Every structure is written in structure tokens, then in C-alpha cells.
């Protein structure tokens, strides 16, 4: 099946590409409309419940709406929900196109979808999860190549390299096709096994050269990429594959998957490239693409080098789609000021522009107060150790040395003295390196919304969308009442977060109405049953609230209303992380650190894998320079210190209602900003199998698993053994 390359000015108009795939979706939809099947049942979009998926869905549906293409969106939480949705589509005779956003790259697409849905269905996959399932690259047959469209993130040579057996994928393709198509031999040896390895290699190269002319003719005649020819014995049947070679090929495949999961181009970036190729790019779509990139960076899915490359591309797009402004004042390091709206532009009620800005690694400091934003920053925590009194004293001492009084730092940032805000970057540049804060900023973007609200940075918008996905409904969260904390944290007041009080989005309101009708129709059900069913749908309401928060037109009411929720979640993360460190609840094993959360006021929050993963990432940053000597690795050699600083973190949180533990694993890196592949996916699977633990792998993030409460100890023991053998 083809892997569509990213659009290029040099791309052939007839070759498979993003615009051609989208044109096929539109054409099939309009054909269905002409045949009297114009409902939304024909085009179905399944979206994973994550920030990138929500941004990509909002962008993709914007394009479809502009073409008057009816469609339906189904959010999916995990594989069980995906299976339920797929079963419901098996009887849908009107279905002609299924689009998967932020899911699907790890699934065998042909066997999972094509064999179950009607023969007219075409499948489009836009997903950032890697690695690819090899069946999606080398399998599927002619039918798969005609009906499955995988939107890739490589150049035009990527699909050509796959189709023609290029060196980049030579080992994986050879191993996959051998295991898939060659019959198995009962013998442990065959004629090929007697050959010297060099002779065998030469024979393979000769066969490949001899096939080149025949393969090119085959491609011209059939219009399909050439297939590797099978070895034929004297009887004309495919030559059996010896067990030893089958094992060798299996090792090659296992090595490919065991390298770990990582992320490619975001779904939002993929859709924006489509819009750009179609000539429909605008500020709304560009902003959502920037949010997709920012989410990948602050969630440590991509490293700084990759981020800088893409940031440069988006900077050019921002300059092209937005009117130039008076340059903002620069800080000491030559970066633009974080407050361009204060000093470089005049207030304009119609100003919805996107502007480059420099982002401090402080948590939502524009909407919080400076002290709390620094205190709840993972970067500051890792350098200062703010969970101890000494670390808090260092933070206060740094602010005093900068000339910032604690009274000013505890005020809302918007109420701070304007001269302090203008000099913030310059003073940080001169004082912060003395406290180890040498990577305090990174380039980003800020968008203004006229007189409707304060400017919103990309990082703040991503945090808000993430908070709505995690806790818009379904959990009890206390948030600060805006304006009640003027005298500091001891004088504030709080209220319980409620989505109703902050304005339900259109789709979320529809779900609420459906729930009310169901409650009236099923009065015979107990309160517990009704509550359980509502909790099961809570994640769906969270999805639609975040989807509504990203609607175009400059309406950011819900997005701004979720800022206090985001702050409360970050407080809970810092509170729980500090408690784990203070109470020595983190056990340093040989190849990872382990912490188990069984009690606390925020237990219900960390049952959510996304929130638990954020806590794990905070611990990775916080412990990188603080617990380097606690590992059981012998000695204090440089290699031991480096390995100790890069230890992964495994967190388990008790879900009391389900009687299970939610377990997540995140990788570590010796330096801030480094990103490594996550190997916990297969590790969790093998640990559950070896320990016979009752475990459920239901999330699209393979580094998340749910383990029965009684089986956690045996699961961790098996995981440690697995890590010792294969994660070194």
C-alpha cells in the first residue's frame, strides 16, 4: 500500500500525494451525494483522544466543510473503543471512506479494516506514531495498494524506496516477505544454508541485478510496483525456508519493533501541508498546526533540533500570512521580547495575527503569577529542587537578586509593574545562568485576539487543550477564583471546576442533553449504575469540549476558561511529585525508577494515563540532577552517573473503582531536551506474558498498560528482568 510523500513543488501531479488523496475523498463523497447517499454515514472520521488528534480533526473537518462534504466524527479512546466503532461500521452499506487521525500506523490495516468493511471502503491514515507496522509498508497486496492511503512524512523517495526494495528498508522487507510468503521447511538446513555468507550475499545481489529489467517491465505492464520474486525449486513451487533462516528473519523483525516507539510528523502538520498544497492555508489552520508542533515539543515527543527545523518553516508561514509589525525590543541574548503586544503594536479590535515570540520555560506565566509559574515548572524544579526548603530559598533568592520583590511576584502577571515585565528577559539572561538555568527560553509563537482576550501563546493553548482532554468532566478539581489571590497563596479562595459554569460547547451540550434523556428513560437504574455509565462517557465529553475550544473565528472563551483548570492540574502534578520524592517513594532499580501511588487527594486525577505520563515526565526532569547517586549501579564512574541520570521512570497509580493499576513508562535522557525511543511497549507485553499477570493494553500509546491490583508485584519483577536483558 502506498505511503504518500509530503507535497513538493517538484511533485508530479499524477503521482500519489496529499492533494490527490484528498481529491479522491471529495470525489467519492460527491458521487455518493449524486446517488442519493448524501448523509454523514458515507465519510467517517475516527480521532484519537489526544491534543494532536483534536487539532488535526478540527483542521481536516474545516477543509471538508469548505467543500460542503458531509461527515461524521467518532472520538476513540483505545483499541476496545476502536473495535466497537469498527463493528458498528460493518453493517454500514453507505460507508465509502474511513479516515483515521492520530491512530492506525501500528495496526495491520488490511486485516483489521478491509476484510471487515464493505469492498467499496477506502482507508486513509494520518498518524504520528512510529514505527510503522511492516504489513502496512510491504503487505496488503494489490487490493491494499488501491484502497489504503497512508499519509507519510517523508519525501517522494520514501515510498519509492519501499516499493523497489531500496537499501533503507532492504533487511526489513526481505525478512517480512520471507516470513509472509515463503513456506516453512521441516529441515534445519537447505542448499542456501551450505553457502558461505559472502557467496550467499553475492548471489542475492546477482539475483537483484538480473531482476531489474524484468521488474521494470512488470511495473510498466501492470502499473504496480515490482514484487520481490520468490525462489523456485525444480518442481516450480516456492522454495521452503529453513528454520534457521526463519529464525534469523524473525530476529530482524523483532529488532525493528524492539527499537522502541517514537513520533514522526504531527497530524496537524500533515493537514496543514495538505491545505497549503490546495492553496487554502490561513491563520486559523496555521495556528492549529503550530499547536500540534508545540504539543510534540513540550511533551518530549521530538527533540530540540527537530523542533527548530519545523519552527523555522512555520516562521516563514507566519511572515507570509500576517502583516509585518514594528520589531519588538530584544533581550540581552538578541531574542524578541515575550511581550510584543505591550511595546510593538497598537491595540486593534480586529487583530488576530500570529507573531513569533520567545517562550520562557515557566508554566503559563502570562496568566498566573511569576512565582507560581516558576515554582511549578519542571525545568526550574530539576535545577533548583523546589520540593525542598533549600530549593524554595534558592528560587526566592534568584528573584530578589533580579530585583523582583515577592509581593510583585505573587501578583497576577498582568498586574505586575510594566517595567518589570519589559526587563524580565534581560534580567533572566543575566542572573538565571548562575542558578543553572541556561536553557530558559525557546522560540515559539503568540496569537492575539483583538479586544476579546489577552494574547495566548502556543504553549499556553496546548496546556489548556490538554487540561480539557484530561479533566473537563468526570473528576473533581478545585480551581482558584480569579482575582482572589492578590495577597499571596494564603489568601486565595477556590471553587469546584465545572464545564457548565464555563460555557458548554455545542457538541458537549448535545451529549449532556442525551444523558439527561437517558436518565429520564431509565429511572429504574440505580444511582451507581447511572454514575458508572456517565463516567464511561466522561472522556468523550472531554474530547468534544477540547474540540469546541479550538473552533475558528477567534472565539477562545472556553480555551481561556480552562486556564485555571490547567493550573490546578499542574499543581496536583507538582504536589504529588514532591510527595513522592520527600517520602522516598521512588525506588531506583537497575534500569528504571519505580514509584507506586496508592493514596492521596489527587488519586482520581492520576488514573488518567495522560496526567500520569505528565507526572512521570516531570519526575524525569526533576530527578535528572538530584538522584544521580541513588541508582544501584555500582560505583560513581562517569558512565554510571550518566546512566543514572538517564534512567526511565515507571509510575503505577491505583484505580480503586476498577481494582487495577494504571502503569506508564517514560524514557529518560542524560541532558534536558534529548528524546529517546520508548521501549516500554514490548517490555510491558512481555512482562505481562511472563508473569501471567492480568493486563490490558488498550491505549494507542503502547507505553501504557492496566494491570490487575494483585498482579502488580509479579508484573514489575518480570519487567525488571526484561529490562536487564533487553533495555540496556
Automatic annotation (TrEMBL):
Tagged with keyword Transmembrane: no
InterPro entries (UniProt xref): CDC45
Molecular function as annotated in GO: chromatin binding; DNA replication origin binding; single-stranded DNA binding
Protein's UniProt keywords contain Nucleus: yes
One GO BP: DNA replication initiation
Compartments it resides in: Nucleus
Stored Pfam families: CDC45
One Gene Ontology term, aspect cellular component: DNA replication preinitiation complex
Annotated spans, Disordered: 178-247, 325-350, 509-532
Residue stretches of biased makeup (Acidic residues): 179-223, 511-524
Protein name: CDC45 (Cell division cycle 45)-like protein
Amino acid at each position: 500500500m502506498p505511503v504518500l510523500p509530503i507535497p513538493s513543488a517538484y511533485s508530479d501531479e499524477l503521482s500519489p500525494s496529499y492533494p490527490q488523496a484528498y481529491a479522491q475523498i471529495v470525489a467519492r463523497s460527491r458521487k455518493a451525494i449524486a446517488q442519493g447517499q448524501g448523509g454523514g454515514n458515507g465519510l467517517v472520521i475516527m480521532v484519537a483522544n489526544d491534543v494532536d488528534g483534536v487539532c488535526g480533526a478540527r483542521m481536516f473537518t474545516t477543509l471538508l466543510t469548505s467543500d460542503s462534504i458531509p461527515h461524521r466524527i467518532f472520538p476513540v479512546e483505545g483499541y476496545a473503543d476502536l473495535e466497537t466503532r469498527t463493528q458498528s461500521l460493518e453493517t454500514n452499506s453507505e460507508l465509502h471512506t474511513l479516515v483515521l487521525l492520530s491512530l492506525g500506523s501500528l495496526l495491520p490495516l488490511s486485516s483489521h479494516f478491509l476484510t471487515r468493511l464493505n469492498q467499496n471502503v477506502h482507508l486513509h491514515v494520518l498518524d504520528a506514531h512510529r514505527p510503522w507496522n511492516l504489513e502496512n509498508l510491504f503487505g496488503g497486496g494489490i487490493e491494499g495498494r488501491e484502497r489504503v492511503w497512508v499519509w507519510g512524512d517523508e519525501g517522494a523517495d520514501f515510498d519509492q524506496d519501499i516499493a523497489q526494495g531500496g537499501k533503507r528498508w532492504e533487511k526489513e522487507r526481505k525478512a517480512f516477505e520471507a516470513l509472509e510468503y515463503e513456506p516453512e521447511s521441516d529441515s534445519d538446513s537447505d542448499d542456501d544454508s551450505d553457502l558461505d555468507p559472502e557467496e550467499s550475499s553475492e548471489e542475492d545481489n546477482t539475483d537483484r541485478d538480473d531482476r531489474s529489467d524484468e521488474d521494470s517491465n512488470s511495473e510498466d505492464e501492470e502499473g504496480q510496483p515490482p514484487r520481490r520474486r520468490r525462489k523456485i525449486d525444480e518442481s516450480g513451487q516456492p522454495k521452503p525456508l529453513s528454520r534457521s533462516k526463519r529464525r534469523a528473519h524473525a530476529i530482524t523483525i523483532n529488532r525493528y519493533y524492539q527499537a522502541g516507539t517514537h513520533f514522526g510528523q504531527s497530524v496537524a502538520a500533515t493537514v496543514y501541508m495538505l491545505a497549503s498544497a490546495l492553496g487554502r492555508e490561513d491563520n486559523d489552520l496555521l495556528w492549529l498546526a503550530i499547536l500540534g508542533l508545540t504539543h510534540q515539543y513540550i511533551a518530549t515527543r521530538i527533540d530540540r533540533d527537530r523542533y527548530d527545523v519545523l519552527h523555522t518553516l512555520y516562521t516563514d508561514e507566519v511572515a507570509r500570512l500576517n502583516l509585518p509589525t514594528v520589531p519588538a525590543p530584544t533581550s540581552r541574548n538578541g531574542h524578541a521580547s515575550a511581550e510584543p503586544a505591550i511595546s510593538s503594536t497598537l491595540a486593534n479590535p480586529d487583530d488576530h495575527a500570529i507573531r513569533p515570540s520567545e517562550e520562557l520555560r515557566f508554566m503559563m506565566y502570562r496568566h498566573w503569577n511569576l512565582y507560581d509559574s516558576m515554582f511549578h515548572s519542571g525545568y526550574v524544579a530539576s535545577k533548583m529542587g523546589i520540593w525542598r526548603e533549600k530549593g524554595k530559598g534558592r528560587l526566592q533568592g534568584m528573584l530578589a537578586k533580579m530585583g523582583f520583590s515577592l509581593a510583585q511576584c505573587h501578583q497576577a502577571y498582568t498586574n505586575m509593574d510594566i517595567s518589570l515585565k519589559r526587563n524580565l528577559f534581560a534580567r533572566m539572561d543575566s542572573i538565571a545562568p548562575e542558578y543553572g538555568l541556561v536553557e530558559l527560553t525557546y522560540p515559539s509563537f503568540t496569537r492575539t485576539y483583538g479586544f476579546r482576550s489577552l494574547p495566548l501563546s502556543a504553549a499556553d493553548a496546548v496546556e489548556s487543550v490538554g487540561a480539557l482532554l484530561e479533566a473537563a468532566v468526570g473528576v473533581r478539581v478545585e480551581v482558584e477564583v480569579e482575582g482572589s489571590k492578590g495577597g499571596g497563596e494564603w489568601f486565595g479562595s477556590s471553587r469546584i471546576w465545572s464545564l457548565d459554569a464555563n460555557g458548554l460547547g455545542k457538541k458537549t451540550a448535545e451529549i449532556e442533553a442525551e444523558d439527561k434523556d437517558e436518565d429520564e428513560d431509565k429511572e429504574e437504574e440505580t444511582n451507581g449504575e447511572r454514575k458508572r455509565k456517565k463516567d464511561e462517557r466522561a472522556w468523550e465529553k472531554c474530547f468534544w469540549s477540547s474540540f469546541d475550544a479550538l473552533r475558528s473565528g477567534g472565539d477562545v472563551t472556553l480555551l481561556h476558561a480552562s486556564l485555571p483548570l490547567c493550573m490546578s492540574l499542574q499543581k496536583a502534578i507538582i504536589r504529588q511529585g514532591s510527595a513522592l520524592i520527600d517520602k522516598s517513594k521512588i525506588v531506583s532499580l537497575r534500569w528504571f525508577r519505580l514509584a507506586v501511588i496508592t493514596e492521596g487527594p489527587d488519586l482520581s486525577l492520576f488514573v488518567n494515563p495522560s496526567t500520569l505520563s505528565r507526572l512521570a515526565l516531570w519526575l524525569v526532569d526533576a530527578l535528572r540532577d538530584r538522584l544521580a547517586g541513588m541508582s544501584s549501579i555500582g560505583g560513581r564512574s562517569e558512565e554510571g552517573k550518566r546512566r543514572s541520570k538517564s534512567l526511565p521512570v515507571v509510575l503505577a497509580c491505583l484505580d480503586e473503582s476498577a481494582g487495577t493499576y494504571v502503569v506508564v513508562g517514560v524514557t529518560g535522557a542524560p541532558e534536558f531536551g534529548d528524546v529517546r525511543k520508548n521501549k516500554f511497549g514490548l517490555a510491558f507485553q512481555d512482562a505481562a506474558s511472563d508473569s501471567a499477570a492480568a493486563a490490558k493494553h488498550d491505549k494507542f500509546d503502547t507505553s501504557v498498560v492496566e494491570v490487575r491490583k494483585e498482579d502488580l508485584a509479579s508484573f514489575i519483577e518480570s519487567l525488571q528482568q526484561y529490562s536487564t536483558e533487553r533495555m540496556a
